[in-house]
Amino acid sequence: MNKPVVLVAEELSEAGLAVLGADFDVRHTDGADRAQFLPALADVDALIVRSATQVDAEAIAHAPKLRVVARAGVGLDNVDVEAATKAGVMVVNAPTSNITSAAEHTVALILASARNVAQAHSALKGGEWKRSKYTGVELDGKVVAILGLGRIGQLVAQRLQPFGVELIAYDPYLQPARAAQMGVRLVSLEEALREADFITVHLPKSKETLGLIGDKELHAVKPSVRLINVARGGIIDEGALYSAIKEGRVAGAGIDVFPKEPVTDSPLFELDQVVVTPHLGASTHEAQEKAGTQVARSVKLALAGEFVPDA
Ligand code: NAD
Ligand code: MLT
Q1: What is the pLDDT of residues 241-251, one digit of tens each?
Q2: 232 in active site
Q3: Is pLDDT of 179 > 90?
Q4: Catalytic residue status for 306
């Protein structure tokens, strides 16, 4: 009997591949290369992706045998869940696999932005010893606004508390009492923008959140504010952020995610006040191992027609 075909369209951890084992015909393709990806879908039963593969209606239409799409990570914005559901395809993800890594990376970018770590590093390696140019700011006593106090936002709050910051958050879907338990004061978006010294974004990408922080919002912030985005590109409008930093209305930013990825030239890269990483939030050995094993288990269960619990 033919083994079910599992198409792995982005890198999957060795541990994830080991969970799949020998019961499946595991194939690999480059999900970001449509000319390679679409024909590879013809006879697949399961598809495993990260964030670089667009699993849209066109892709689903190319996969008549597809039964499950597994997203080795959190955000499902690259999967057309509605089109998949219409086609009878189950969509699973690994919602807790990389949240610790994403939260830790957020803290890294907050500190890097506050203390000019990346800029001073490049300058010194380039032969420049510049102490006063890279004078930073302390976190102690500062107000940190978390936009989206979900799994990652909460881990960020926990990790920042020992720095002596005041934590506020904008998340209209969360009960104020739940936030208060975590030592976080829920506020409106306007208050968050007005009060914050640091703003960190942990929202899903959706019609409501795309461009949520645009030109108008960046006119409402303190000029000393630093913005961090380890969620999704486009939630902070890049053009508006560029202008705000250029015009001295925003002090700096730490950006891990971009509207179009991969990207190697963005106006933001010209600005010394901006520290960037190439979507590294989930890029740790631990997170990738968890994501890989969790989705591989879900794929096995789904293809066996069994109940797939939340990972
Ligand atoms: P989550 O679902 O646990 O939390 C999201 C929070 O945002 C929820 O509390 C929700 O109430 C709130 N929210 C949703 N829509 C909102 C809106 N319109 N206005 C205000 N609040 C809103 O998700 P999470 O696990 O914390 O992950 C957040 C996002 O981080 C993911 O969707 C993903 O895109 C991104 N992410 C990025 C990386 C990375 O590598 N950079 C890694 C993991 C996750
Ligand atoms: C996620 O949503 O899980 C992250 O963006 C990580 C990833 O896709 O690699």
Answers
A1: 999 999 999 99
A2: yes
A3: yes
A4: no
202 lines ligand 1 (CB under 6 A): yes
- Is the backbone peptide bond immediately before 223 cis, with ω within 30 degrees of 0? no
Tell me whether residue 261 is one of the annotated catalytic residues.
yes
In the chain, the percentage of residues whose pLDDT exceeds 70 is: 100
Q: What tens digit of pLDDT does each residue of 255-267 get?
A: 999 999 999 999 9
**Cβ(94) to ligand 1 under 6 A?**
no
Which amino acid belongs to residue 259? P
Cα separation, 153 vs 298, in Å, equals: 26
Cβ(251)–Cβ(225) below 8 Å:
yes
Q: Which of 11, 138, 208, 261 is catalytic?
A: 261
Q: Which one of 50, 71, 105, 232 is the catalytic residue?
A: 232
Distance from residue 26's CA to the centre of ligand 2 (Å): 22
ipTM: 0.99
Predicted TM-score (pTM) of this structure: 0.98
* Angle separating helix axes 117-125 and 99-115, nearest 10 degrees: 60
Kindly give the number of the ligand 1 atom that is closest to the alpha carbon of 203: 7
Residue 139 has pLDDT above 90, yes or no: yes
Cα–chain center distance at 90 = 22
pLDDT, the chain, mean: 98
Rounded (10°) angle between helices 99-115 and 151-160 = 50
Contacts 24+ apart (CB under 8 A), 187-194: 187/145, 189/147, 189/217, 190/220, 192/145, 192/147, 192/168, 193/145, 193/217, 193/220, 193/221, 194/220, 194/221, 194/222
